[in-house]
Amino acid sequence: MSSFEDAISHPQGDSMPTDTQAAAAHRSWWDHDADRYHHEHEGYFDTFYWCPERLREDEAHLLGSPENLPGQRIVEIGAGSAPCSRWLAQQGAEAVALDISEGMLHRARQVPGHASSNLTLLQADALGLPLLDESADQAFSSFGAFPFIQDLGAALSEVHRVLRPGGRCVIATNHPMAWVFPDDPGQLGLLAAIPYFEHAYTETSPDGTLDYVEFHHSVGDWIRAHAQAGLVLEDVIEPSWPTGTPEWGQWSPLRGAIFPGTAIFVSRKKAKPPETK
After folding, report:
1. How many Cα atoms are found within 13 Å in the side-chain-facing hemisphere of 243?
2. Mean pLDDT of 119-130
3. What span, in angstroms and rounded, lies between the C-alpha atoms of 240 and 262?
4. Is 71 left (phi over 0), alpha (psi -120 to 50) or beta?
5. Between the CA of residue 164 and those of 65, 102, 153, 235, what are the distances in Å?
6. What's the number of CA atoms in the CB half-sphere (13 Å) around residue 27?
7. Rg of the chain over CA atoms, in angstroms?
8. What is the pLDDT of residues 49-65, one digit of tens each?
């Protein structure tokens, strides 16, 4: 197979994996891949970056001004080794970092200061958050969980459930349009070659075991899922590629100058109406 054919191939099985099958695959994948992933992207986990474009929370303030963070309970979904939650805990927030992979959470426990009283690490599936109703001021995800979930509406409904009225949700994920371009940081990655209407990318073992899956959520999927969950979509941020930022996998200055690799969806749970006398 040529490099072109290999780059645009999106192998899929005969049927769409269920979220239960996907969860089992992702738990195993990230348990085994955690060390390699951190070694390959060393330096990225030193602070709170929203995306490979290196948008920093201490500059973007997508979760609010730093002076307003102390005392807030902020939940991270798909936290990995929890660098973002760790940063929030250092600012005085009560950070709750959730991830499906024990391997990733093990990495989080190796970082000095992980035992802060402001930081809680929990192994959990995004479709079943182990949190009480209306127990969080904010929820967010930085490229965690949501690309790996088929039922986006159900996942966002869980976010809605745990948010207090007026609470904010911020999700950074693959830009829906980036799906159509091969995962290549060079010229090949500028060719629109993969159907936008294709719904999943899967990898399987020779015995047919599902090893890895990413689900494609279109722009329309994201809008409908927020509406289904009762979250009011307030903004969609598409970061540009900053000068001097290095490549990250298929992300690169070449591609970033032409189309966005990241979309950040900002939404809010409606506040309760004021009581009438």
Report:
1. 0
2. 96
3. 9
4. left
5. 19, 28, 18, 20
6. 13
7. 19
8. 999 999 999 999 999 99
Structure tokens belonging to residue 36 = 């390699």
244 sits in the region (left: phi over 0; alpha: psi -120 to 50; else beta) called left
Q: Mean pLDDT, the chain, as a whole number?
A: 91
Please tell me the predicted confidence (pLDDT) of residue 12: 52
- 127: tokens are 């479709």
Rounded to an integer, what is the distance from CA 15 to the centroid of its chain?
Answer: 24
Query: Which whole-number Å values give the CA distances from 80 to 44, 181, 235, in the listed order?
Result: 12, 26, 25
pLDDT score of 13? 46
pTM of the model: 0.92
Q: Which of 113-117, 170-174, 193-197 has the lowest average pLDDT?
A: 113-117
Looking at the chain, list the stretches that DSSP marks H as alpha helix, in order from N- to C-terminal side: 3-8, 19-40, 57-60, 83-90, 102-109, 152-162, 219-229, 253-256
Residue 126, CA distances (Å) to 118, 139, 151 in order = 21, 11, 11
213, 17 Cβ separation under 8 angstroms:
yes
117 pLDDT higher than 60: yes
Contact assessment for residue 263 and residue 236, using Cβ atoms and an 8 Å cutoff: yes
